[in-house]
């Protein structure tokens, strides 16, 4: 390959990476989830006495909202499945984050909670934005969370990460 062409391709690649990194915006906030879900179903697995599966629906409220494109997160509605074995529970959730103007952000969450006396004591995991409506069309991003739980079971989670709006995709979604 021509050395000049190789140098130009390398510069183009670095420029693309720099542009993508600059488009990422950092966010952080704190959310509180109630001790009791809105709806849930737990089924014990037959293989051992401390193994169960569950489906849960709950709503969480942002105490320190995330700031996304000038909008503040207000409430999350989440539905997911969990598996508890011994002192560990894994969760996979899908949800909608309602913003201050009514726009929605779609979220996927994967977490792992440590249980003490059958109740969560800490939880950590990752999340990702998978789309949005209105001003958040083309929303993407990801991050992590860390939760602690009150004696009554309410979860208090610190959330951090990055987001971006895919401009071409956002224009196409808004045109529909």
Explain briefly what this protein structure is.
With about 180 residues, the chain is of the alpha+beta class.
Note the main attributes of this structure.
disordered C terminus; 61% strand; 176 residues; elongated; 10 strands; 17% helix; alpha+beta; disordered N terminus; AOC barrel-like
Explain the overall architecture.
By secondary structure, this protein is α+β, with helices and mostly antiparallel strands. It has a single domain, classed as SO1590-like (AOC barrel-like). The protein contains two helices and ten strands. Strand 7 and strand 8 form a beta hairpin. The protein starts with a helix and ends with a helix.
Which secondary structure elements does this structure contain, and how are they paired or packed?
Blueprint: H1 3-23, E1 25-33, E2 39-44, E3 51-64, E4 67-68, E5 71-85, E6 88-99, E7 104-116, E8 119-132, E9 139-149, E10 155-165, H2 167-175
Antiparallel strand pairs: 1-3, 1-10, 2-3, 3-5, 4-5, 5-6, 6-7, 7-8, 8-9, 9-10
């Amino acid at each position: 390959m021509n050395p000049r062409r190789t140098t130009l391709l390398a510069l183009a690649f670095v420029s693309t990476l720099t542009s993508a990194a600059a488009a990422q915006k950092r966010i952080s906030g704190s959310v509180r989830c109630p001790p009791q879900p809105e709806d849930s179903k737990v089924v014990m697995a037959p293989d051992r006495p401390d193994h169960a599966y569950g489906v849960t629906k709950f709503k969480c409220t942002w105490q320190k909202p995330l700031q996304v494109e000038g909008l503040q997160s207000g409430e999350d509605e989440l539905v997911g499945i969990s598996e508890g074995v011994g002192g560990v529970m894994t969760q996979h959730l899908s949800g909608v984050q309602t913003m201050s103007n009514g726009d929605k952000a779609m979220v996927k969450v994967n977490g792992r909670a440590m249980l003490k006396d059958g109740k969560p004591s800490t939880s950590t995991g990752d999340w990702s934005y998978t789309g949005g409506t209105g001003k958040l069309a083309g929303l993407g991003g990801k991050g992590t969370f860390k939760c602690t739980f009150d004696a009554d079971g309410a979860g208090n989670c610190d959330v951090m990460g990055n987001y971006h709006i895919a401009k071409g995709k956002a224009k196409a979604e808004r045109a529909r």
